[in-house]
Amino acid sequence: MSDNLARVCRDVVRCERCPRLREWCREVARTKVKRFRDQEYWGRPVPGFGDPRARLLVVGLAPAAHGGNRAGRVFTGDRSGDFLFAGLHRAGFASRPESIGRDDGQELRDCYIAPVARCAPPANKPTPEEMALCREYLTREWALLPDLRAVLVLGRIALDGFLAMLRETGRPVPRGLAFGHGAVHDLGGGVRLFCSFHVSQQNTFTGRLTPRSFDAVLAKVKRHLARG
Ligand code: SF4
Q: Are 217 and 182 in contact (CB under 8 A)?
């Protein structure tokens, strides 16, 4: 049976491979946080989201406990999502500057977002074993997005997860490929890898990552895509 993005999405949502993460997500969904106590949390693994003809793949870390784990969509309903989608909107990849909920009308254009772990982890830290178990989904999406020309990794852990996925598929990974905000690496076959600090509050509240410095990375992505 041939694979497709809808099947990946369905498999992600049903996944129970990581007992620690599944237990944590359900517990967070049950106990909630005061400001969202009237909302029903998603509480399940969160699938990738975006345009099936995307040329840009954005790779994040994992859903947030009260963001993606509540809303059921990646980078939705939290400050990280606010920052990311505002930037994607300025660059023309998102139809709206905010990401509030699954029914907010948000559409990604030429862009697909996928985290390296699909369940919200305690302290935002999935274990290496959990990320390895989850990599199958990124591998399948990578194979099912035929037009990809650019990959934007948000943070070092996303970079490591993405490169591990590439190695597992047998694709050669250039030597000495290092993380740095604004770094660009050629992956061969016309595909380029772009690195950015993660859009978490730890970076955006401290000024380590600003709208301007994020826009500069997205401008590099757009210049690459414009070259065809
Ligand atoms: S992190 Fe990934 S592999 Fe683990 S339970 Fe969630 S969806 Fe499944």
A: yes
Torsion sign across C-alpha atoms 215, 219, 221, 226: positive
- List, as one string, the DSSP characters of 49-77: EE-TT-SEEEEE----TTTHHHHSSTT-S
* Ligand 1 pocket, mutate which of 20, 25, 130, 136 (most atoms under 8 A from CB): 130
* Cα 19 to ligand 1 centroid, rounded to whole Å: 9
Taking each helix axis as running N to C, give the angle between helix 211-226 and helix 79-90, from 0 to 180 degrees, rounded to the nearest 10.
Answer: 40
What is the pTM (predicted TM-score) of this model? 0.97
40: DSSP letter: P
Q: Is the CB of 12 under 6 A from ligand 1?
A: yes
Per DSSP, the residues of 125-175 read ---HHHHHHHHHHHHHHHHH-TT--EEEEESHHHHHHHHHHHHHTT----T
**Is any ligand 1 atom within 6 A of the Cβ of residue 90?**
no
Residue 27, helix vs strand vs coil: helix
- CB of 18 sitting under 6 A from ligand 1: yes
pLDDT band at 14 (very low <50, low <70, confident <90, very high): very high
Those residues whose C-beta lies under 8 Å from the C-beta of residue 140, and which sit 6 or more positions away, are: 3, 8
Segment 68-88, tens digit of pLDDT: 999 999 999 999 999 999 999
Residue 26 φ/ψ, nearest 5 degrees = -65, -40
